[in-house]
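Hey Z.,

So I finally got round to the glycine thing we talked about over coffee. Here's the setup:
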Amino acid sequence: MTRAIFRAVPPIRFTIRFPNAATRVWIARGALASLGRETRRVTGATRVVLVTDTHVGPLYAARARRALRHAGIETDLVTVPAGERSKSIERLAGLWRRFDDAGLSRAVAVVALGGGVVGDLAGFAAATWLRGVPWIGVPTSLLAMVDSAVGGKTGIDLPSGKNLVGAFHQPSLVIVDPALLATLPARHRRAGLAEVVKMGFACDAPLFRVCERHAAALAVGNPAALATAITRALRVKTRIVSRDERDRGERTALNFGHTVGHAYETARGYRGVLHGEAVAVGMCVAARLSVRVAGLDPAALRRLERLLASLGLPRRLTGVRAIALERAMRHDKKRDARATRWVLTPRMGHASVPQPITTRLVRATLLDVGARI
Ligand code: GLY
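And the result:
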């Protein structure tokens, strides 16, 4: 069974085309070893700043540097503390200073080796340095491999909300090496699966069914099942972002579960809850609202909750008051002058245009899923 899935996932190379940019994507076990050659081929750089964090650096920075050196590329290494709190103005300014010290000119590139935090921070530093230098993503978490590394969203958080400052800046190259998941803690792996479930539930029902079929294998981190999930999720993501780079239309579907998800992270001070876990609970809220106002079949909600449970993901809010979530949601990027707008799913695999929902109904639903009064 496992072998059959593996055979279906050979190394894959493709290009995502945007109106003013292109991202080359290379998915293969062991792809990290070709980081130097691919960087040289795609950007022509002979010098890079390699940004990583305190978890990933000790595991993979030496291998990344070796691969770069073999291709004749010099590396300046910058290591930031692991965790969402590094997506801050202070860390961003620190990167700019390091770019300055390294004499980073337009002829060189930034490599982001890490999960979503490193990608968002290093990508935004690359977007803003000299009004934009090339960057390369080497995602090491499942969440970054299936979602955040592709599509060019970069940015940092403010104390009042997540990703409030940012830019679209497409990476020139994304290298996805599923072998790197071997060192990812199980909890982080499960959190990454939440984004795969999201893509299935909001954008692609066949992907949701794949997750259901292979839930047991995904939950224990079976490499073949993970490789299948990565490839299929990236196909879905590619289809969407290549048609709507700037998040003005169908890309908003990828925000399903994120209205409450981001608010939950903010209200908890980015402590004790991982982004994917927050999105899992956020999807339960959004799906309940979808049943109430968008005609979603309650059976689909039950399937979502069952799948999240079998992947070991939370379905309930803990340690947070409804009022704190509501305050954080007032900073949601999809908010207009009057109200937060919600991505809902009238049926599995389809998302609606973001729409306002009455504060009463939102409050009742937050309380239903565990928020305190
Ligand atoms: N992670 C959501 C997006 O890329 O649009």
